[in-house]
Amino acid sequence: MQKQLNLRMTRQRKVILEELRKVETHPRADEVYEMVRKRLPRISLGTVYRNLEILSESGEIQKLELGCSSKRFDGIAENHYHICCIHCDRLIDAPADFDVAVNHNLKNTIDFKIIGPKLEFIGICTDWLN
Questions:
Q1: What are the DSSP calls for 43-87, one per residue?
Q2: What domains lie within the chain, and their CATH numbers?
Q3: 62-93 confidence digits (pLDDT tens)
């Protein structure tokens, strides 16, 4: 569940958020740091870590702590599912129509109010199957 915080958008947070939303790769904090350093050369790794946590807690981004990879970050704040390759650690978003089908079917079969998904798919990507 996302928290709604009044988040002051500092220049550093704004750049981190912009860089994270440019990619579909679900980068680790050190990868975000390398992206952000191109625009803010004097930023520290600690500042990037701290701001990623703040952006995650505020609901601006998602922090992904999945079983097959190290902690990653996703610029898409809305809940959605992910698929991870157990060989290369590649992480992708599940197709949107899959999200809708799972959520719809679940809501019609249980008497819970769902506040968010924590469903992870693992597999082997086509790069490793060929």
A1: --HHHHHHHHHHHHHTTSSEEE--TTSS-EEES--S---EEEETT
A2: 11-129 (1.10.10.10)
A3: 999 877 667 899 998 887 888 888 888 888 88
